[in-house]
Amino acid sequence: MPLSRTLSMSSLPGLEDWEDEFDLENTVLFEVAWEVANKVGGIYTVLQTKAKVTGDEWGDNYYLVGPYTEQGVRTQVELLEPPTPALKRTLDSMNSKGCKVYFGRWLIEGGPLVVLLDVGASAWALERWKGELWDTCNIGVPWYDREANDAVLFGFLTTWFLGEFLAQNEEKPHVVAHFHEWLAGIGLCLCRARRLPVATIFTTHATLLGRYLCAGAVDFYNNLENFNVDKEAGERQIYHRYCMERAAAHCAHVFTTVSQITAIEAQHLLKRKPDIVTPNGLNVKKFSAMHEFQNLHAQSKARIQEFVRGHFYGHLDFNLDKTLYFFIAGRYEFSNKGADVFLEALARLNYLLRVNGSEQTVVAFFIMPARTNNFNVETLKGQAVRKQLWDTANTVKEKFGRKLYESLLVGSLPDMNKMLDKEDFTMMKRAIFATQRQSFPPVCTHNMLDDSSDPILTTIRRIGLFNSSADRVKVIFHPEFLSSTSPLLPVDYEEFVRGCHLGVFPSYYEPWGYTPYYMSARHMALAKAFPDHFTYEPHEADATQGYRYPRPASVPPSPSLSRHSSPHQSEDEEEPRDGPLEEERYDEDEEAAKDRRNIRAPEWPRRASCTSSTGGSKRSNSVDTAPSSSISTPSEPLSPASSLGEERN
């Protein structure tokens, strides 16, 4: 048996070990997912990291099937001619009948071959296919759910492609189709309904109902067996999606999931016990070059610092050498991913740093894709100002260096008063004036479409982290996945992670999270390379604890005022039951005295002192709620004590 198969399968429970190699000569594997060359969430990472190993094992008999997106194809896919006559006839046949099907190579490690189906070009058949879905599976899809409509189009196109491939192939190969998540599940159901000779596998990486229940402040894990799944799905207006997911789970020849906790969840919510648990993998080879870690961290941190210099121009009154970079990343599920807990913790950290007069600064990044229409003008201006200052400094440096060189060449020390002329000083003064800024640095790097109701921005307004000079914790909300081609922060996610100091992932619903494991892998590598500076102690839950734990109370997570009852953008924001919260009177000196008595001050490392403006002015009792992505209200944050007092009211 191949080494790659042995390593990947040895830890899977329920599988018998076999001695002979699997015959791949007349077997073709199609892996179907909505996130093929289309980054939405964690499934993109699953496919990306397994592509090389799977491709090495299956060779030219492995294809990925996904949706055609113009952005994805332009940046991630190289379009090619189909390599086999049967596949070429399949694509030509579908294209001649009104579909648009593309073939190419996904430009990731392993370079897997991909078949991309344009769902938009087949919208003419949507109503007919929805009727057929109702007649065949008794699943009705409402017209207003665009995502579900796309799933119907994608499912029918996938089934059409698989059926056409079998019809055009004279050798009649054994076809295995592996479907990921409910968005691809319609194709699996149709393969079974049309009795195609295809072996089907369905993998759920998380359940739809689980996401919605956890986002709705439900004690999920202690009541898994008690939920009326039809009622809960109907109340959240996702019954049709739930039916798609459940039908795919029951129709599949093999049903798998990615973790034991999700297997139990699927058994109760989807009413089928997974046949096998297939944990997601992590390519640890990239973390093996331990001697390079320190240099790579310094290089990546320098890229982040360049962005920070531009973003905070005019308010760069903190020492970058005493700045820590924290981040949280993932799908924009405010409560499920723990963004509410993280923001509350940052507010408390900011208060403690200010009360204790710390010179340490924390810059916290929120990398969560949301609905935007463009970059924030103030953010773009900041990067332009930074670049202009750099160009000005280089111009002056070159003139200074040339005069210094000419002076030394003739054997005399330069006259420092003549090294810079009036034009140089004028140029530098203009550069200084360009850094003047009346507003605070923006919190959000993009223009949000739902600015006034966005949960992160709403919570930031409530806790008052406006990136003021007095704040020791700065917040940057980047509502877009990171890319090395971005004009703002031109780094990939892995490079960004390498440059940060701490990743925070207080998720409540996390069937399998890649982000914490990336952090653990890097931490483990650092501990092995530099044991004197880093230690790594893996945490394992006690056997008696299991997976059952309650949702935290309403304190410290954000109150219902800023928490959605379902995943973000699926329902309107809840209104507070008792009307607007009354503002509690706050005396800064009195509260600071209480904290010095009751809170143990952290032991800050003693370093050389540097000048830092902490802005010891009185706080204002008003917090701006104006709907603005840049949030430039000159109001300073209330203390955590005041925030908790408001929540108790």
Mean pLDDT: 79
Within the CATH hierarchy, at the fold level, what is the topology of the domain at 27-281 and 513-529?
Answer: Rossmann fold
Tally of extended strands? Answer: 15
The major beta sheet can be summarized as:
9 strands, mixed
Question: What would the principal axes of the Cα set say about the shape?
Answer: globular
Q: What is the CATH superfamily label of the domain at 27-281 and 513-529?
A: Glycogen Phosphorylase B
Q: What is the CATH C-level name of the domain at 27-281 and 513-529?
A: Alpha Beta
What Rg is obtained from the alpha carbons, in whole angstroms?
28 Å
Describe the model:
- This protein has 21 helices and 15 strands.
- The chain has helices at residues 3-9, 42-58, 70-76, 85-96, 126-137, 146-168, 185-193, 208-215, 229-235, 239-251, 260-269, 293-311, 339-355, 377-409, 416-419, 422-434, 455-463, 493-499, 514-529, 588-598, 640-648, and strands spanning 27-32, 62-67, 77-79, 101-106, 113-117, 174-180, 198-204, 254-257, 276-277, 323-329, 361-367, 372-375, 446-448, 473-478, 502-503.
- Strand 6 (174-180), helix 7 and strand 7 form a beta-alpha-beta unit.
- It is an alpha/beta fold.
- Among the domains are: 27-281 and 513-529, 3-Layer(aba) Sandwich (Rossmann fold), CATH 3.40.50; 291-378 and 437-503, Rossmann fold.
- Helix content is 41%, strand content 12%.
- Helix 6 (146-168) crosses helix 7 (185-193) and helix 12 packs across helix 14 (377-409).
- The longest helix has 33 residues, at 377-409.
- The radius of gyration is 28 Å and the shape is globular.
- It has a 9-stranded mixed beta sheet, with helices on both faces. It has a 4-stranded parallel beta sheet with strand order 14-11-10-15.
- InterPro entries: Glycogen_synth (IPR008631).
- Pathway: Glycan biosynthesis; glycogen biosynthesis.
- Residues 627-640 have a biased composition (Low complexity).
- This is Glycogen [starch] synthase.
- Residues 609-626 have a biased composition (Polar residues).
